[in-house]
TrEMBL record:
It comes from Wansuia hejianensis. It comes from the Bacteria. PROSITE patterns: MGS (PS51855). This is Bifunctional purine biosynthesis protein PurH. It catalyses: IMP + H2O = 5-formamido-1-(5-phospho-D-ribosyl)imidazole-4-carboxamide; (6R)-10-formyltetrahydrofolate + 5-amino-1-(5-phospho-beta-D-ribosyl)imidazole-4-carboxamide = 5-formamido-1-(5-phospho-D-ribosyl)imidazole-4-carboxamide + (6S)-5,6,7,8-tetrahydrofolate. Keywords: Hydrolase, Multifunctional enzyme, Purine biosynthesis, Transferase. GO terms for cellular component: cytosol. Pfam families: AICARFT_IMPCHas, MGS. Belongs to the PurH family. The keyword Metal-binding does not apply.
Length: 510
């Protein structure tokens, strides 16, 4: 008789699976709560301590860590020396392990959990068993995912055994599972010790969905979410309407959310290719939408809109006048939903706590042969800004400068933002030359540029940009400062009658 060792924390489907094994003449070994459940359902089980001749000790910390268990799992069925050893030591074969681990992930996400409880939810025996079974997959079946119960039973019913191909597939799931599990533990201890960049790092992510394709149709892709589901992110958004999000949708939506979180008053961000093409703040969400739309009425077409206030009937009607891929908002009125859902392809995503900016994740960028990790750029340092020009910005100009500075922080370098009345009117970004970014922004601002302000994510290496901006009608500039040409730049600002602020901090984004 073949035997399965069943010991699961997640007991979903386990009774039906055990009944199916029994009907196929398998013996069942079990422990603790799993054994109790199976007995209640009339399933005969053999306790682990009946196999090991040793009771559970240390409050259950030690129960399956025993040669009578691991010998039965790890011996090679085609090795006569192994078989002889088991016969001499009276160790029985264990041909299947069904196990899932203590809920460490769920435990660390609880707000009321203690360190001691977290430690007790680090599984030891479970990982040892399933790794042993997975190592010996040539002879042993190991199941850690209830979704695989049906497949295994069907193969046993059909062929009286589980195929080698399936056992290998199940083993691969085990090593993914234990690697993920251990990553949670290691990252918990890194956080406990205040270690942001450990010598060795393992990052754990869970697949949220397979995507239709990546940046381009010929690229495969999937979306993975952070271990802890942080509110106010695309990973915890609820799709109210439309088809599944694509790779580019998710990337662009993330770009929109990053910008949106900079602003407290009603704000709308329009994004194309993960960069804002329009940002507007106002007294109402309707006013904010109009400003964002009028920033660039062409580029917003086919883009993504993010709002930090509820989408109402008036905003929905304006959105419905153009082609928009995705709308992100904390909520939608019933009237807004009735209007927007008339278009079947638009995606409507409800994101609770959309303005939440309190999360400590690291920023990750993949490079060939490695990854780059850095802290999130979450500083503005406006309290330390210094007015370096002869002219001080007027109150309205100062409000626009702060608005533009927040926007410039979130565009690709070299990047500049021209803004007026808390709306972007000209965006120049992603240039290798800052003057080119300035030229583009001036051109895009057009005749609205008179009396506007500009924010630059980096310093100005030469005075040529200041001269061009002054002649175009820009009245104030905010920038990091720090160039060896700062004196010349300030002199040019004074010559043009412009106000200039140094922040002392740059916001490159590559």
């Amino acid at each position: 008789m073949k035997r399965a060792l069943i010991s699961v924390y997640d007991k979903k489907g386990i009774v039906d699976f055990a009944l199916s094994l029994k009907s196929l003449n398998w013996g069942i070994i079990s422990t603790g709560g799993t054994a109790e459940l199976l007995r209640k359902e009339g399933i005969e089980v053999l306790e682990v301590e009946d196999i090991t001749n040793f009771p559970e000790i240390l409050d259950g910390r030690v129960k399956t860590l025993n040669p009578y268990i691991h010998g039965g799992l790890l011996y090679k069925r085609d090795n006569q020396d192994h078989i002889k050893t088991l016969e001499e030591m009276n160790i029985g074969s264990i041909d299947m392990v069904v196990n899932n681990l203590y809920p460490f992930e769920e435990t660390i996400q609880r707000s009321d959990v203690s360190h001691e409880e977290i430690i007790e939810n680090i599984d030891i025996g479970g990982p040892s068993m399933i790794r042993a079974a997975a190592k010996n997959y040539k002879f042993v079946t190991v199941i850690v995912d209830p979704k695989d119960y049906t497949k295994v039973i069907e193969e046993i019913e059909k062929s009286k055994d589980v195929s080698l191909k399936t056992r290998q597939y199940l083993a691969s799931k085990v090593f993914n599972y234990t690697a993920y599990y251990d990553s949670l533990i290691s990252n918990y201890f890194n956080k406990l010790e205040g270690v942001d960049f450990p010598d060795i790092i393992t990052l754990g992510y869970k697949k949220e969905q397979d995507l239709r394709y990546g940046e381009n149709p010929h690229q495969k892709a999937a979306f993975y979410r952070e271990v802890i589901n942080i509110s106010g992110t695309i990973s915890n958004g609820i799709k109210l309407h439309g088809k599944e999000l694509s790779f580019n949708n998710i990337n662009d939506a993330n770009g929109a959310l990053k910008v949106l979180k900079e602003f407290e008053e009603p704000t709308v961000v329009a994004v194309k290719h993960s960069n804002p093409c329009g940002i507007g703040s106002g007294q109402t969400i309707e006013e904010a939408y109009k400003k964002a739309y009028e920033s660039d009425t062409s580029s917003i077409f086919g883009g993504i809109i993010a709002a930090n206030r509820e989408i109402n009937k008036e905003v929905a009607e304006m959105i419905n006048n153009i082609f928009i891929e995705v709308v992100l908002a904390p909520s939608f009125t019933t009237e807004a939903l009735n209007i927007l859902t008339q278009k079947k392809n638009i995606r409507l995503i409800k994101i609770d706590n959309i303005d939440n900016g309190e999360y400590e994740e690291l920023d990750l960028k993949k490079v060939l042969g490695g990854i780059l990790l850095q802290e999130r750029d979450n500083k503005l340092l406006l309290d330390d800004m210094e007015i370096v020009s002869n002219r001080f910005p007027e109150e309205e100009e100062l409000e626009d400068l702060i608005f533009a500075w927040k926007a410039a922080k979130n565009i690709n370098s070299n990047g500049v933002i021209i803004a007026k009345n808390k709306a972007t009117i000209g965006i120049g970004l992603g240039e290798v030359n800052r003057f080119w970014a300035v030229e583009n922004a001036i051109e895009r601002a057009g005749n609205k540029i008179k009396g506007s302000v500009l924010a630059s994510d980096g310093f100005f290496p030469f005075k040529d940009s200041i001269e061009a901006l002054g002649k175009a009608g820009v009245k104030a500039i905010i920038q990091p400062g720090g160039s060896i040409k700062d004196k010349e730049v300030i002199e040019e600002a004074n010559k043009q009658g412009m106000a200039m602020i140094f922040t002392g901090i740059r916001h490159f984004k590559h």
